[in-house]
Write a structure and sequence with these properties.
Length: about 140
């Protein structure tokens, strides 16, 4: 899983690995992390993380605003971005293309980015994509 990939990348002393995971309430962040770490997801306690960013913005616009703010951070300059379009196992899930449009991903020009449809609950689209992207990004750097 993710931990073995990170351990492999960390074994190279000149290779720095940082992961930032963001998402709305009930977006599946904890489930996704547990899937990536190959941990049991059957007993997940809901977590609550509040944000002070754009409190007056409509809930649906906050992710795009927060992503734009993060991508302007100097420490994240040129860092690849992998967006998981989670909960694709639900009929009401927005497709990855719609999420990409809503996040204005097409305007990102200074880094590699990818959006991946997935279901953290079933694990579909999670492990393979991350392994492929980390391998590619490590090779390109």
């Amino acid at each position: 899983g993710l931990l073995s990939i990170l351990r492999k990348l960390k074994s190279a002393p000149d290779q720095e690995v940082r992961i930032l995971l963001l998402g709305l309430d009930n977006a599946g962040k904890t489930t996704l992390l547990k899937q990536l770490a190959s941990e049991d997801i059957s007993h997940i306690t809901p977590t609550q993380v509040s944000t002070a960013l754009a409190p007056d913005a409509p809930r649906s616009l906050r992710p795009a605003w927060e992503l734009a703010e993060l991508l302007e951070e100097e420490k994240l300059s040129c860092v690849p971005v992998l967006i998981f379009a989670n909960k694709q196992d639900l009929l009401t899930a927005a497709p990855a293309s719609e999420i990409a449009e809503g996040l204005n991903l097409h305007t990102i020009r200074d880094r590699v980015w990818q959006i991946q449809s997935c279901s953290a609950l079933t694990g579909e689209g999670v492990q393979v994509r991350l392994q492929e992207d980390l391998a590619t990004w490590q090779h390109d750097s």
